[in-house]
What does this fold into?
Amino acid sequence: MYPLYLAKVERKGRSKQELDEILRWLTGWQQDELEEELAQGTRFDDFFARAPQLNPARQWIRGVVCGVRVEEVEDPLMREIRYLDKLVDELAKGKAMEKILRKEA
It folds into this structure.
């Protein structure tokens, strides 16, 4: 899925570095570890299961992805995927990184 996410954000003038920052924020991966996971083509279930530290602030990710409210997704893996989808959507829509990463202004 990473190549699709990357193509989406680059079409909207955003960068690979910004996408990677979102992935690191969400999962706790270091950049070299993230690149290794991506190079191996790791599946979502393994990617999130092995994530060093899922960011507790991800609970503040709200909104709709594909017609489904992210905060209402019951399946834990699907919720993590929807969190990522929502963050990528926000990046592609031009939202500031501070807001995407739920940082204090």
